[in-house]
Amino acid sequence: MRTGLNERTLSPYAGFMIFALVAVIGFAYVKWAPYYAKAFVAQSHHAIGDSILSGKSSAVPTASWSAAVDYAMAYGKAIWQALVLGLVLGSGIKVLLPSQWLGRVLGRIGLRSVALGGMFAIPCMMCTCCAAPVAAGMRQSRASVGSVVSWWMANPVLNPATLVFMGFVLGWGWTFFRIVFGIAMVLGVAYLAERYAEAGERAAVEHDVVPEVDSANGGLLARWLREFMTLAIRLLPEYLVLVLLLGAARAWLFPVLDAPDSIGWIIAMALAGTLFVIPTAGEVPIVQAMFALGMGAGPAAALIMTLPAVSLPSLAMLGRVFNLRTRLVIAAGVALTGIVAGLVATIVF
């Protein structure tokens, strides 16, 4: 009799229960408990910390190795636990969840899978980079392009904790604004990604191109650890390099923090926000600091929509499951939504 659990001894139900237990414990420790406490801080102080872009300064640091390392350290301190959880869950999907089951639930092309992916993301509350390993695991286990994009983007854009922080810090009008444009962004970009994905990429779900995990490859924990290490080695080196580069390039992406309401600045902030990487809810103190310096509602709205949605590192992390065209469609959809939101904000606020 084998001493290690494998596919023959682990039923689909047991695998699902193990995965759910790990997810609930992980999210409770990394997300739910800390954000519950932070909500009271936001309510009492109308702030949740300094801007990760500039700290207490009124200007972004000039491009340098020091600026790169300082940003990477601050960013890493904020997200490392969630990133580890993302790697654990992303690898766990392939080991514990039957791909046939995931394909039946989220594998169909169309609005149903897109909507389900977005709804499943609501309690997870991960930033775009920490959600990327899970999105990769979902895609490799036969989830459709639309459902994966919807889950991936809804995590940061429709994060309930961020919406609460935003209400207490920036005002509830901005929370409502984010909800309306966030739903439109998530569903719209997911639809476009699925619509313009190449035929072979869409068919990957339907034609069983992802092999099942070989039951002879050892026990459950050994296979899970192997998948974890494979995922980490594939994603983290490139991710770290891009975070360092973006940390150094802050001064070029955000040359001023008091941009006025103009179409030029709205476009510039939408593009910068699409590329830049921040931790969960990092857009709230960033925009609060920019408002204090005189930034207009239009550029601020563009950042509120684009900063959390995607980033250059998170797009790179999904390079093995989405081709370049699909990722360009996602980035373009996010930037365009940010521009439209900025133009609307100049009228509404």
UniProtKB/TrEMBL annotation:
Looking up InterPro entries in the UniProt record yields: DUF318 (IPR005524)
Topology relative to the membrane, per the entry? Multi-pass membrane protein
User: Transmembrane stretches, by residue range?
Assistant: 12-30, 78-97, 109-136, 148-170, 176-193, 239-257, 263-282, 289-308, 328-348
Record's subcellular location: Cell membrane
Could you say which residues form the signal peptide?
none
Q: What keywords is this UniProt entry annotated with?
A: Cell membrane, Membrane, Transmembrane, Transmembrane helix
Q: What is its main location?
A: membrane
* The UniProt record lists the keyword Plastid: no
Record-linked Pfam families: ArsP_1
Q: Which residues form a coiled coil?
A: none
Would I find Signal among this entry's keywords?
no
Query: Mind telling me which GO cellular component terms the entry cites?
Result: plasma membrane
**Record-linked PANTHER family:** UPF0718 PROTEIN YRAQ
Which family is this protein grouped under?
Answer: Belongs to the UPF0718 family.
Report the protein name in the record.
Answer: Putative permease
Q: What is the scientific name of the source organism?
A: mine drainage metagenome
